[in-house]
Design goal:
Strand content: 5-15%
Number of domains: 2
Number of strands: 6
Helix content: 40-55%
């Protein structure tokens, strides 16, 4: 069965089986090698990246979430990278021009490595979390969490 590499969204249609799979994967966290067996008995080893994808999909589906699987090239256009980061292309190009994310220019157009884009995304997430933690710490130091909020104004 040959399937084209298009985006596909999977819905949690078999919740009992998905829950059982998630429990199995959660109780066997040290699984580094797994096999897949066909109905005819043929066996193939699952690479670790496929096993990790299976874990992530099982977790999301067991929580009632849909999962979209989409192939990505290992190098992206500036538009693809901007969409992955949830920003406009011009904003992404500014990041490239500032040297924040490395890129190549094999012809007229810039190309970025998927690994660099994902690393930047994780860096941004960590920066946001650190900023939020710092704001929380400052608010606690100032005693802002100890105050009782005022009663809301009532409209007549």
């Amino acid at each position: 069965m040959t399937e084209t590499l298009n985006e596909r969204t999977l819905l949690p249609e078999h919740p009992d089986q998905i829950a059982e799979l998630r429990r199995f994967l959660d109780t066997s966290p040290s699984i580094e090698a797994a096999i897949l067996r066909s109905p005819e008995g043929a066996i193939v080893a699952l690479p670790t990246e496929v096993l990790e994808a299976l874990r992530l999909v099982a977790h999301a589906l067991s929580e009632g979430k849909a999962v979209t699987v989409a192939p990505l090239h290992t190098t992206l256009t500036t538009q693809e990278a901007a969409e992955l980061l949830g920003m406009s292309r011009p904003t992404f190009v500014k990041l490239l021009d500032s040297g924040t994310i490395p890129f190549t220019r094999p012809g007229r157009h810039r190309r970025v490595r998927l690994t660099d884009v994902l690393a930047f995304r994780e860096y941004r997430r960590a920066e946001r979390a650190a900023g939020l933690s710092e704001l929380t710490r400052i608010s606690e130091d100032l005693g802002l969490y100890d105050e009782t909020p005022p009663e809301p104004l009532k409209r007549h």
